[in-house]
Amino acid sequence: MTRVLVTTANGDTGRPMVDDLLEHGLQVRAMVRKDDARAQRLRDSGAEVVFGDLLTLRDVRAALDGVQRAYFNFPVGEGLVEAAVMFAQAAKENHVELIVNMSHIQSRPQARSKATQNHWLSEQLFAWSGIPTTNLRVTFFMEWLTYIADLIRHGRYVMPFDADSRFAPIAGSDIALTAATILGDPERHAGRTYTLTGPVEYSHQELAAEVGRVLAKELPFEQVTVSTFLDLLGMPDDTARLRHFEAVTVDQREGRLAGVSGAAATITGRRLRTVEEFVDERRSLFEVGYATTSA
């Protein structure tokens, strides 16, 4: 039976992807950083759980041993290109049939953000490796709303981006299903690059209004500096995110995240989640009176 490696298996795309792949009848190896309750839930779902660091070649080789297909995802931070080199090398050694690579919608060689430029370099690296690869160039996740859930509960919708910058947010679960569908049919999708967005484009101000409508509360858009935003998220010293978000602010002014793509719905054959559905499913995060979780 085909075995698929899912990296960042406890993340916004990794968690639902494990379930989607299992439903496709594939064996799943879930790679995580530590053994905890989340790892146990992956085991309980039927996945094989392995532990490791994407920046340690020994760990990557072990994770890819005996794997036929793989999902590569790396968080915002230093080391993406190095991790991609290790992943490509280990995948080549194990004759992997397909890699699905998570990238940025604004991926390009002249990107202002080093993180975005490194995603473009990683796309080139996987192409040079000769391993069949599908690149997913993804816009902002709807999960951004959960990062500011504590602020939304108290009537604040805060972002470091311009109010009129436009994008079409997509749920992590829809990205996961798209990737799982591709991993289930490598011959159809290998060598392709897809742009993934949600079904509706908003400005940041319009999105604040939509979330407020769903929650039946006033939720005016508030723009702050990137450093203030990271302070609010409890990440005051995250230099990589600071530089990336500052660059993305300019990308949005230039319209690089604007527009709607139908690729995810076409690939999965399913309607994508709306912002209203996403917020309703997580209403307890956004309303005072429920158990709260810090952003």
Describe what this molecule looks like in 3D.
The structure is a single chain. This protein is an alpha/beta fold and 295 residues long. The protein has a domain at 3-139 and 172-195: Rossmann fold. It is built from 15 helices and eleven strands. It has helices at residues 14-23, 37-45, 57-64, 80-93, 114-129, 144-147, 149-153, 172-183, 186-189, 204-215, 226-232, 239-253, 263-268, 275-281, 283-286; strands at 3-6, 27-32, 48-51, 69-72, 98-104, 133-138, 157-159, 166-167, 193-196, 202-203, 221-223. The protein has a seven-stranded parallel β-sheet with strand order 3-2-1-4-5-6-9, with helices on both faces. α4 links the parallel β4 and β5 (98-104). α1 (14-23) crosses α8 (172-183), α3 (57-64) crosses α4 and α10 packs across α14 (275-281). Mean pLDDT is 95; it is low at 291-295.
- Can you tell me the overall shape? globular
User: Which sequence of SSEs, written as H and E, runs from N to C?
Assistant: EHEHEHEHEHEHHEEHHEEHEHHHHH
Distance between the termini: 40 Å
Beta fraction of the residues? 15-25%
CATH homologous superfamily classification of one domain: NAD(P)-binding Rossmann-like Domain
- What's the number of extended β-strand segments? 11
Helix content class? 40-55%
Protein name: NmrA family transcriptional regulator
Organism: Mycolicibacterium agri (Mycobacterium agri)
Pfam family, one: NmrA
InterPro entries: Ergot_Alk_Oxidoreductase, NAD(P)-bd_dom_sf, NmrA-like
